[in-house]
Specification:
Blueprint lengths: L3 E3 H6 L4 H4 L11 E4 L16 E4 L14 E3 L2 H13 L1 H14 L4 H16 L2 H8 L14 E6 L2 E6 L10 H16 L5 E6 L19 H10 L2 H7 L4 E5 L2 E3 L1 H4 L6 E5 L3 E3 L13 H4 L1 H4 L1 H10 L3 E2 H7 L4 E3 L2
Parallel strand pairs: 1-2, 2-3, 3-4, 6-7, 7-8, 8-10, 9-11, 10-13
Antiparallel strand pairs: 5-6, 11-12
Helix pairs in contact: 3-4, 4-5, 4-13, 5-8
Length: about 325
């Protein structure tokens, strides 16, 4: 693990673009390690391009110096984060830069920035290496519609319906979800929509067998913005309730986090595995999860890929209610 600096020591090394350049994976520095001190109030003239890991008191993340991207309470936790960064330094650098940017802007602009970052990394060496490690598999057709819609009086029930694939977020499921949400947007008589997943979990995230299919980064970006379930959920956030259970991975939590009321069962758990693939969250997580739990918790989730259980998610604000059963 890298040597530990104080915040003032790091600030003193960030006085010019040339000095800040040293803090980059391209210069052999994939992260910076600092000690968190309550008295650290110095502001850096420039931000390092690598993630800044802070070790110290993390009880009040609002009190952590602005320069810190991810805060942990121990050397062991810091080492876990550092190892993850070293495995995919470009994706890690992109993630923290994206979070720094997105916490200052509107949701719509954050979705644009995320899509650009995601499309760029899809054609990077880290993701291509991950992709090459997976055997190519034929995607079987869905035996039933990937999304089921049922209206009961003024409530529209929307069910992700790929239980045989753990409701993996495929292009077909995205299209079905968007079309269901368009019904809500077009009909003021629908007072509420309830979003669920069929089978053992809400959604295990993006359909990995579709990853890497796109060969045109610009077209992928345009497609992601043109038909965006995340943007539509954000627009309808006051009228949609998400009810989660089991695995809620990647898109399985990035999308529900857009709505104003997220209910989770006790068995629900949450993960963001994209950085381990050489990517960043691509279904809107850096726009939806960020205002719920803050930049540093989101960075920790995404860099480490650790599971977050339902009770922790409630404490953080990632979900709004826990139900039993």
């Amino acid at each position: 693990m890298d040597s530990l600096l104080s915040i003032p020591e790091l600030v003193a090394r960030l006085t010019s673009p040339a000095a800040a350049e040293a803090f980059s994976p391209l210069c052999g520095r994939p992260y910076a390690l600092v000690a968190i001190d309550d008295d650290d109030s110095a502001a850096a003239a420039y931000r390092p391009n690598c993630p800044v890991i802070g070790i110290g008191d993390v009880d009040d993340l609002d009190a952590v110096p602005e320069l810190v991207d991810v805060a942990v309470e121990s050397d062991e936790r810091a080492e876990l984060v550092a190892e993850a960064i070293e495995h995919n330094p470009i994706a890690s650098m992109t993630l923290v830069g994206l979070l720094r940017h997105n916490e200052r802007i509107a949701t719509e602009d954050a979705l644009l920035a995320e899509s650009l970052a995601y499309s760029t990394l899809q054609h990077g060496a880290e993701f291509q290496s991950w992709l090459a490690s997976r055997p190519a598999r034929r995607i079987p057709p869905d035996p039933e519609p990937p999304v089921i819609v049922e209206r009961v009086h003024d409530v529209l029930h929307i069910t992700l319906n790929r239980p045989q694939r753990r409701n993996a977020y495929s292009s077909g499921l995205r299209d079905g979800l968007c079309e269901a949400l368009y019904l809500v947007g077009d009909d003021p008589g629908i007072e509420k929509a309830v979003l669920r997943g069929a089978g053992v979990c809400f959604s295990a995230g993006g359909d990995l067998d579709e990853f890497g299919e796109g060969s045109d980064a610009g077209l992928a970006h345009a497609s992601r913005l043109t038909r965006s379930a995340g943007a539509t959920l954000h627009a309808l956030r006051d009228r949609v309730e998400a009810r989660l259970h089991g695995a809620c991975i990647g898109a399985g939590i990035e999308l529900p986090a857009f709505v104003n009321h997220v209910v989770a069962r006790e068995d629900a758990f949450f993960q963001l595995p994209e950085v381990s693939m050489g990517l960043v969250p691509g279904a809107g997580g850096t726009a939806s999860i960020l205002p719920r739990i803050g930049r540093r918790r989101l960075a920790y989730m995404a860099l480490t890929g650790e599971r977050v259980d339902a009770r922790t998610a409630l404490q953080w604000g990632l979900v709004d209610e826990i139900e039993s059963g």
